[in-house]
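Forum: Protein Structure Q&A
Topic: Joint prediction for protein chains with partners

I've read a bunch of threads here and the consensus seems to be that you should model interacting components together rather than docking separate models afterwards. I'd like to see that in practice. Below is the full input, 798 residues plus whatever partners are listed. Could one of the regulars post the assembled result?
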Amino acid sequence: MTMAQHTLSTAERPLCAQRAVAPDVIERILATHGNGHGGLIAVLEATQAEYGYLPETALRLVAEKSGSSLVDVYGVATFYRSFSLQPRGRHLIRACLGTACHVRGAPMIVEELERQLGIRAGETTPDGEFTLETVNCLGACALGPIVVLDDRCFSQVNTAKARQILRKAATHREVAPLAAAI
Amino acid sequence: MGRLRSVEDFHVCQRALRRAVDRHIPTLVISAGTCGVASGAQDLIDAANEEILHKGLGDRIRLRVTGCHGFCEMEPSVLVEPGRAFYPKAKPRAMARIVNATAKGEVVEALLFHDPDTGQPAPRQDDLPFFRRQVRTILSRNERIVPDRIASYLENGGYSAVVGVLKLGRPERVIEEVKASGLRGRGGAGFPTGLKWELLARAPNGRGKFLVCNADEGDPGAYMDRSVLEGNPHSILEGMLIGAYGTGATEGILYVRNEYPLAIQHAEIALREAREYGLLGEDILATGFSFDIHLVRGAGAFVCGEETALMRSIEGKTGEPRQRPPFPVDKGIAGKPTAINNVETWANIPLIMEKGAREFAAIGTPNNSGTKIFSLVGKIRHTGLVEVPMGTPIRQMIYDIGGGPVGAAKIKAVQTGGPSGGCIPVDQFDLPIDYDSLAAAGSIMGSGGMIVMDENTCMVDVARYFMNFLRDESCGKCFVCRKGTQRMYEILDDISKGHGTLEGLALLEELAQVVKGASMCGLGQTAPNPVLSTIRHFRGEYIEHIENQRCPAGVCKDLIVYSINANCEGCGACVRLCPSGAIAGEKKQRHTIDPEKCIKCGACRSACKSDAVSVA
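Posted by a regular:
Agreed with the consensus. Here's the joint model:
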């Protein structure tokens, strides 16, 4: 199965449909998370857990219902790396670019994943299947380079293994930890 | 076991748990921290359980699932107690043999760790060169404790230190002991912990005081805090309880990086269990002392490891640092006195109170007491977490413990201190690892990341990598850091692509000094360190990139060419993998790469079994 896709420029790329947000969901999140430490960050984390990303409507509702200005909410949402204002794909692929992974060739793995998926890091494939992101250290440095597919962690990845990971995810087969198989 | 309502309750409970432990029954200890799980530890656990059930060995052998032990390169691994046999890179299908042998008190010699140089099996984990030189005060506990069971912590003596402190009833004793121990902050700055706590204790009571555990661990390549928090979360809670009693703190916050889901999970379980047992909350053990801890998750920002940015993040704002003074002990979270300490610092506290300051200070060197955990990673044979006395020479760490280079390439440097640190070249490897010596060499000890680099690492690329990281993580508040890191990155990028000039190099050095001197917070002030130290020790590589458009290490893509050398046996493995169809050749004949089509992805190099792909 070929993974190569025609790469669309950002202008051509169809806007992934934003999810609908119900005001009572936001109210519930604010009631649970809005008052403790972490404040707005905890609220946005819970919102992202609910919708998979931070829809614009959600940010506006959070601002309206918490009394914060939209600028402040937007500021926090864009300051922290783990928040995404774009819908994410069904599968989230995160490639570690920490120093230990870097010296073991992680940038080439990211390039390979970009090439196979036809997108740049930070983007989602047009069919909504894969989002590719880079991370600045997952703390499994002795086993790098590391690639995480959803919640499965793959160690000592090289370009060949990167392709295998994508192939298995695409065909919906149970993704076995490659390190044990090799 | 239910809620403990008094000190006496605690002792009764602990005694009962300890009596129930039979240390003679052989136990298989499987490390299942993040690394262990990523390597397949769960399959080992399942296979072991299946065999134990199948053969009815439940009363003859135990299985203990723990956090990281530290020899990550060899995971998934199995340690046997009490004999201390060590089975590295264990396979699920071998577990049946291991289980049966262990139940009989025997060892499977073929599966033990064999010394790569002599071929001899090591009878005990402690004989391995990787472990022999370590002083595993903290990490050894990760072998004994099951992280998601408070009973395991209690039966190993956990919470005795804080109960002892509460029984004594003299908060000032805590400060005295921590000061006498000489403990310095393990997060990187090395500020004397006792002094910080003394200042917090002096701050007026009544309005509330905070203690924070900084588990943000942003340095890429450093993961010791993750291992301690995953493997022994209660040690952190106990440390904070002791600190709170000594300083008058009323509330604790455990700030954990959200890239560490397992650490967060174990911390949340530990907090819940501690509250259930009455060891956190109101009127702990009826002593009148109250303290609780809440977990706050990070959201992905390196700058939030800086303490003023951390506090803003806890308050739910953008993580922008601010001027100090006022220092957190005077004005911290919500304006209240706050002390922030690193995970490893907290983990040392119960040990200091239990053994006493003098015993703690007996390890290490003057002004640098105790042990430190380092993450030894990169181009080295044995990667993992290593705990050694402060003052251990770099050479010992890299060659004796780490086993030296992997493959033929010689080790060139070690990068310490993460993005705030610098590279120490091999000719300075006799330096002791402590706060002061590394600073003199142009680096810092930092949180303990040690990234080993060899001849195939390009130092210009390393500087460019760090500067890319830092310009991305710069919060943007002050112009000098925001613009300075950006411009420094651009100059480095130009050099790595063969467009550098000597004037650009001079400008880079000048910019580095300005960013260092004029940035408001630690991120900006230390951002130039990787650049300055690589220029200081590896200037030749920079000149080679600039004057000859050549990358000696064969890394910078625009300056290298992939070719196939005489080792090629014509197997064609590379042809199949090449995404751009750049490789051609007859079967069993030496193949060739078309440089016009080659995109330098490295797939051929990683597939080649004959070392036939050259990069120059």
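Chain A has eight helices and four strands.
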